[in-house]
Amino acid sequence: MSTDDQMQSRAMRLSLVMGFVMLVLKMSAYLLTGSAAILGDAAESVVHVAAVVFAAYSLWLAAQPADENHRYGHSKIAFFSAGIEGGLIVLAAVFIIYESIRRWIGGLTVSHLGDGVLLTLATVVINGMLGFYLIRTGRRHRSLILESNGRHVLTDGWTSLGALAGLGLMHLTGWPWWDPVCGLLMAGNILVSGYDLLRQSVAGLMDHADPALTRDLDAALVRETAARGVTFHALRHRNAGQVHYVDVHFLFPDDITLREAHRLTTEIERAVIQGTSHPVHITTHLECEGDHEELHPGDRL
What we know:
Elements: H1 3-33, H2 36-62, H3 77-106, H4 113-140, H5 144-173, H6 178-205, H7 211-226, E1 231-239, E2 244-252, H8 258-275, E3 280-288, H9 292-295
Parallel strand pairs: 2-3
Antiparallel strand pairs: 1-2
Helix pairs in contact: 1-2, 1-4, 1-5, 2-3, 2-5, 2-6, 3-5, 3-6, 4-5, 5-6, 7-8
């Protein structure tokens, strides 16, 4: 296992352990207070633990080498993981909305505010630190799985902060409806985070081209091919989770030898790989200018 894989596995194990700790703390706070906001917070933690379990499996699977049935490897599981996390976040938000409205209509009873606030405050601090750590580690190692999990952890922290705000306003004003109101506000924030993860998941699964990477690749190819008297076309790329696969066609003069064309192609590929901010794997198709239109009519994309 590489150093990157070890760092990612360590971060995911920490996330899983802390997810269970957060769930215990939040359920304890809810049992003490009976708060709708804290119940919603605890419900989000149940969802979070389920999501972390799948994220841990996804991280393991993404690290497995290519095999007979998966010639490009398994790294696209990252988009499934992000989609599942986003979907579970949305489900948690729906539950919080339902529970907040039900408690608002059915009556509000909250007790032991002091103990509940202390337990919930502890979860805010822990989730904030853990979330930023996971996001930083995910970006450093280009792991969408870890980054998505970190964003989910931060969402969990925002949920806890909203619960604290509701309890604090109840204590200051004596108005019990602050509890479900803050629960509804938290649900709105969670829905936005869940939608963003779902959008990112769909974009990856549908091979949505990153405009920034397109510009980087195009600029690097223009620079490197022009320096060697070569032209290119049919540039395509797709995100496979941990690496971007790039396809491009090179057009060479008719009198060039295969040995020289291959040498120039290899130089261009290496320069482009070094000149882009994303890990890329380039596959090239070599063509001659003289008979290109005859062999590939209309192929100039």
